């Protein structure tokens, strides 16, 4: 990716689906190397923003610039090349059920007609699943599946990692693991992370900035303040007591 300037920018972006305005004149720069949380209630336009960042859709009005280029000006082949530098993880993990963890992680390379078994093994080790490499998704917990999905997203060494509700199907402990891993991903791989979620706690845990969407309008963007409790890893009991006020 290019070394300077924002990694992505929304410039007066609106997206219209028939009579529904999914995004309304959104302007936002995403800085290289930051973790930014995009938060908002259901229907606020979060997924629409991610799809634009993945060059999967284009705005009705305005412009999205990804790593210095407007995908709308690229050919299909150029868009495919751009998308190789963008990793994505999903709420439901989206692993192939008939492939092992190792084969799932290797898949993006296979699609590019290359292979790198050492890198695949290294990434499975990085996400703490070296001993589960030959397990199928159904043999893994949700948190483990999401970690496989993160390894798969990292195998092409993306500069931009897009996370769409990555912890919404996970329990507290698995959520903490996945969030820690996303923070480590920024540190160890230099990736910019865009975390879309309705869970404010997740953003508070790892993001540098939060962008708040309401009804397709970007209401505010502000730095996230770390809470004192952050960084401590509760026992499940301590967590339950804290949340339930026992
Ligand atoms: N392909 C589409 N066709 C028609 N309307 C759509 C389409 N995609 C999204 N919308 C509408 O655009 C608005 C924003 O949707 P979006 O999925 O971006 O919200 P969201 O914040 O991600 O919501 P959720 O948290 O429920 O996923 C919603 O009103 C939605 O119904």
UniProtKB/TrEMBL annotation:
Query: One GO MF term, please?
Result: transmembrane transporter activity
Q: Which UniProt keywords apply?
A: ATP-binding, Nucleotide-binding
Its family remark reads:
Belongs to the ABC transporter superfamily.
Q: What is known about its subunit structure?
A: Homodimer. Forms a membrane-associated complex with FtsX.
Q: Which residues form the ABC transporter domain?
A: 8-240
UniProt entry tagged with the keyword ATP-binding: yes
Q: By its UniProt entry, which PROSITE patterns does this protein fall under?
A: ABC_TRANSPORTER_1, ABC_TRANSPORTER_2
* Chain's role: Part of the ABC transporter FtsEX involved in cellular division. Has ATPase activity.
Q: Does the keyword ATP-binding apply?
A: yes
GO cellular component: a single term: plasma membrane
Quote the protein name from its UniProt record: D-methionine transport system ATP-binding protein
């Amino acid at each position: 990716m290019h070394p300077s300037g924002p990694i992505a920018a929304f410039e007066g972006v609106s997206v219209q689906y028939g009579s529904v305005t999914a995004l309304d004149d959104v302007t936002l720069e995403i800085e290289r190397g930051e973790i930014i949380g995009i938060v908002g209630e259901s229907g606020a336009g979060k997924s629409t923003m991610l799809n634009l960042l993945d060059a999967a859709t284009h705005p009705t009005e305005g412009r999205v610039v990804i790593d210095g280029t407007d995908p709308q000006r690229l050919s299909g082949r150029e868009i495919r090349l751009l998308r190789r530098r963008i990793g994505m993880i999903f709420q439901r993990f989206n692993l192939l059920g008939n492939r092992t963890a190792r084969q799932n992680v290797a898949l993006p390379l296979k699609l590019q007609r290359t292979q790198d078994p050492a890198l695949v093994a290294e990434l499975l080790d990085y996400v703490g699943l070296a001993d589960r490499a030959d397990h199928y998704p159904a043999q893994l917990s949700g948190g483990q599946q999401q970690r496989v999905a993160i390894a798969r997203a990292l195998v092409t060494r993306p500069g931009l990692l897009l996370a769409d509700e990555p912890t919404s199907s996970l329990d507290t402990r698995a959520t903490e693991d996945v969030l820690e891993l996303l923070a480590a991903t920024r540190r160890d791989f230099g990736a910019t992370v865009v975390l879309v979620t309705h869970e404010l706690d997740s953003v508070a845990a790892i993001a540098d900035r939060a962008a708040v969407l309401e009804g397709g309008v970007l209401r505010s963007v502000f730095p996230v303040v770390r809470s004192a409790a952050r960084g401590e890893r509760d026992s499940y009991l301590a967590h339950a007591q804290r949340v339930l006020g026992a």
